Amino acid sequence: MTLTGSVLSSVKILNLGSVTHIIAVVNIISLLSLFLLLFVHFLPNNHIFPFHYAYAQQYSGATSSSNSNFPILNASSNSSGSGSNILSTSGMATADVKPDKVTIIVGVETTNKTAKAALSSNAAALNKVLEVLLAAGVKKNETSTSSFSVSPNYNYSQGQNKITGFTVANSIQIQSSNVNGTAKWIDTAVSSGGANTIDSINFALSDNRSGEVKNNLIKQAVIDARSKADIAASALGLKIIGVKSVNLNELEQEPPAPQPLAMTAAIQARTANATPIIAGQQKISVNISISWLIG
After folding, report:
1. Which end of the chain is more exposed for a tag (fewer CB within 10 A), N or C?
2. Which pTM value belongs to this model?
3. Contact, 250 vs 92, CB < 8 A?
4. What is the enclosing helix (H) or strand (E) of 87?
5. For every one of its 295 residues, what pLDDT tens digit does the chain have, with 9 covering 90 and above?
6. SS3 label, residue 120
């Protein structure tokens, strides 16, 4: 055999061996792929892709909920990861409460040719008002200044702008828990003290009384919401097993501020004893929404 023939024979043997190795590797890869496909097919989905599986479960639950005959029920997962149904109800409680606090603003306006004279007469009149109010039962710590102003008065006639005098207005605020003394204090301030303005009268609930009433209404609203939930769950063949969320709304409706009646001469003759002031009642409402876990 020649040298060239030996080389060619070696090349053929080498190529044949390489092809054999390649075929063997391909066969092994094919067997591994088949085994992996069989393993994936028979193993539960949640063991392979837990996050995708959880998402699919939630999506499936939400879809079934939207087709439910009871729109108040929603399928969801609670914090422990197990599925549970949700029932949402609302409860409301209302009370009409008599105010236990009154705020009155009483004032004196005086006018004079000079600011000093107007201020002097205003101070004398307002001090008199304070004196008679304290004698009528108003406490010193229940009074405070509400507003004070000194303003010039102008005459615009004949194209000229001249100051004709000055007006001083000084008002005090009375804030008291003695609601029944309102009419008496107004009459005393006007008739005995010389007050000539009653700017406002406002009745309200004190913070303590308001908190007490609201706490009781919250309890009643929760009972109302629970009663509705029990009825609905029972009709569905389920029971309340827990609470998911609570939303509380406080709705407070203030009554119109009462005002003293206009005291014409005819009315004064019929109501000589006291100016009629009626406090009325204040309506307080509490609304609560609760999402219940049912099963």
Report:
1. N
2. 0.60
3. no
4. strand 83-97
5. 444 444 344 444 444 455 556 666 666 776 776 666 665 455 554 444 443 333 333 333 333 333 333 333 333 444 444 457 999 999 999 999 999 999 999 999 999 999 999 999 999 999 999 999 999 999 999 999 999 999 999 988 777 788 999 999 999 999 999 999 999 999 999 988 889 999 999 999 999 999 999 999 999 999 999 999 999 999 999 999 999 999 998 776 655 445 444 444 443 444 456 778 888 888 999 999 999 999 8
6. helix
**DSSP SS3 for 33:** helix
Q: Which two tokens stand for residue 245?
A: 């969320």
User: How many C-beta atoms lie closer than 10 Å to residue 248's C-beta?
Assistant: 13
Positive or negative, the CA dihedral 90, 95, 96, 99 is negative
Are 214 and 206 within 8 A, CB to CB? no
